[in-house]
Amino acid sequence: MSLSHALRRQLGGFIALILAVAGIAAWLFAVDEGRWVGRATTRPETLNLETVEQGNLPVNQFVSLRNHWAVYREHVATFRLDAVSGEGQRIETLYYPVISDMNPYLLELAGLSRAFGGIDNIPADEWPRIERMGVLIRTDSVQSLENVPPLIEFPDGLFGTVLHAETDLPRDERELLSERWPEIDLSRVVIVNAGHRPGNVWSMLAYGGLGLISWGLAILLAWRLLRSPRSSQSAGAQGGPGALQAQHSDGLSARSPLETGVPSPKGQKTPRESDERPLSYAEALGRYAPQNNVPSSPRLADSQPAKGATPLSGIRAQRDD
């Protein structure tokens, strides 16, 4: 096998492997996009916090929030172990609850604020605990704890996709939320992935088609590699043109000038002319006379020619004397 042919086979196998991996990745994206088909609309549905806090979960998986209170004091975060920002350890994911105006937590906090002369004067051990949580916000836009508001705010509206704690969250994040709020059933909490939009059927079809094309090209390339000869000996064994040409040239070179019809150079004798002696008349007569078939039961009368008949041979015997 030549070096260039071996390199071409290795390069072709590497390209086929890349196409196969790209096809699998495209199909995974298609599955991720397809899980939203039939579960979310193209426009977000406004979420009613009071209804959700009473246990009524939304059907549409693409929602938006308008009037809500963000309780940043009750946040929980996961951090990146290999990334540190200028303001401290970098946050990977931040969770914080949002409540409505009629949530018992907000009503109790308003009473404590009046009692202590402001929300900033409430002691840490006097802060109420959230016992009714309907919506939990998940965001990756906050980089460090310095950017997290300290207590509670009334922010602008937001939108996002709905995640389910048991199926959509990583195991470490699910355990972290259970430890932070052990008294709350997370399966009854709407987790909104802030800023994310759901997939659609067109994205699913595009990724699926890309995966089919990648796998088709990978199979075609692998088929061509398997059909190509693996060594130069296999080509010679199959009777390739090169082998036939070499054999033909060897056969021609082994023939004598008399067999090939090529005249020998002037003054040079052929092997027949140089090795053989001149034939006598009798030897020539025996060599070049036509051989007749001998009958099964020869008779002397049949073997001799009739009078006046022309002999079969064109050469007549003559006596020397």
UniProtKB/TrEMBL annotation:
Keywords: Membrane, Transmembrane, Transmembrane helix
TM segment ranges: 12-30, 204-223
Renumbered residue ranges of the record's region Disordered: 231-321
Name of the protein in question: Uncharacterized protein
Organism: Cobetia crustatorum
